[in-house]
Amino acid sequence: MTVRVGVIGAGMIGQDHIRRLTEVITGAEVVAVTDIDADRAAEVAARVGARAVATGADLIGQPDVDAVLVTSWGPTHAEHVLAAIAAGKPVFCEKPLATEAADCLRIVEAEQAAGRRLVQVGFMRRYDSGYRELKSILDAGGIGAPLMVHCAHRNPSVPESYHSAMAAQDTAVHEIDVLRWLLDDEIVAVQVLAPRRTRHAHAELQDPQIMLFETASGIRIDLEVFVNCQWGYDIQCETVGETGLARLPEPARATVRSAGTTRTAVPQDWRERFVTAFDVEFQEWIDAVAAGEPTGPSAWDGYAATVITDATVEALRSGRTVGVDMKDRPAFYAGGAR
Ligand code: NAI
User: Fold this and answer.
1) Is the CB of 122 under 6 A from ligand 1?
2) Rounded distance from Cα 284 to ligand 1 centre (Å)
3) pLDDT value, residue 1
4) Which domains does the chain have, with CATH numbers?
5) pLDDT score recorded for residue 336
6) What is the rounded distance in angstroms from the CA atom of residue 249 to the CA atom of residue 281?
């Protein structure tokens, strides 16, 4: 069966996912595209033989749209996801599920009322082979009970529009999701330390930041977010357990020896680092939709990420340790994958 997809938001990642759906993975076809920039929608749709439609609501209502991909701006996500649920159509929403926790809860409630999983949120690190290897080691008890995790999320540079809260909202949110999944544990409190600022950041941006998370079982996570590090897109994750240590593998790159030195290239951006994870994420989403129900990061995971992100922003602002004020997980989302 071919899953016919309608895409809301034909910007940077929307176009990349359309390429992925049409050129990289199997079992999918893009039939409709919408964007508030109608010219962009028309141009992107024409490229893949799809039609442009006027609005997200129009697109969701098209009878030949089997599943919806939301890649518009974050504050518009909730509206489109709720409309897709109301139409009973599976919807893949790029992160964040919604920028407000209350909107995430409305989505969670609507999905439960629909009685089956329809929503998947775009946390692609769960599809990275390195993180998957780490998870299988942890799940098999390969390092005993995890006690501490040391992480870093570094970008070479960010634009002037990037502000301090985005270190949590746009950057750390990926670790927040992948660590909840990796450890099968919930983050309950967060503190943010503000080291000496790099001179490569603009005056309003606290860069770097050290985020200290605590989980329900007492695991301590330290995450360095350093978005003007200059040298590359550098993702690190090391889990220390009672009997061993497991470290996220570096991306495979040749080692070059010349002029008396040994060199290995560091990826320069997230697209390069996680391109395969995105491909796997979409293949598995399409396969699951064709089989009946998505199985990846759920609306509940999207809610949890937004609540933890909010607590992290508040921890930076206040300088205090902030408890994560999360609702109890409904039975509908029990069992991790939900
Ligand atoms: P972008 O600004 O390049 O594209 C967004 C597009 O959505 C624009 O063409 C805009 O005109 C359109 N749009 C906005 N509101 C709309 C609406 N109501 N209806 C239809 N079209 C609308 O932004 P970008 O970088 O592509 O990001 C889109 C989303 O993807 C964001 O939520 C972002 O956080 C997420 N993202 C996720 C990544 C990941 O690592 N998983 C990486 C990059 C982006």
Assistant:
1) yes
2) 22
3) 84
4) 3-123+276-297 (3.40.50.720), 126-269+303-323 (3.30.360.10)
5) 54
6) 19
- Angle at which helix 129-139 crosses helix 173-183, to 10 degrees, equals 30
Residue 204: per-residue pLDDT: 87
User: What is d(CA 185, CA 216) in angstroms, rounded to the nearest whole number?
Assistant: 6
* H-assigned helices in the chain: 12-19, 38-47, 56-61, 77-86, 101-114, 129-139, 166, 173-183, 270-291, 299-318
Judge residue 254's burial from the number of C-beta atoms within 10 Å of its C-beta, 0-12 exposed, 13-18 middle, 19 or more buried: exposed
Regions of the chain with pLDDT less than 70:
335-338
Minimum-distance ligand 1 atom for the alpha carbon of 34: 20
Cis before 208 (ω within 30):
yes
Which strand (E) or helix (H) includes residue 152? strand 146-154
Which ligand 1 atom is the nearest neighbour of the CA of 122? 41
For the chain, give the number of residues. Answer: 338
Predicted pLDDT of residue 203: 87
DSSP SS3 for 247 = strand
Say which amino acid occupies 259. A
| 40 CA closest ligand 1 atom index | 9
74: Cβ below 6 Å to ligand 1? Answer: yes
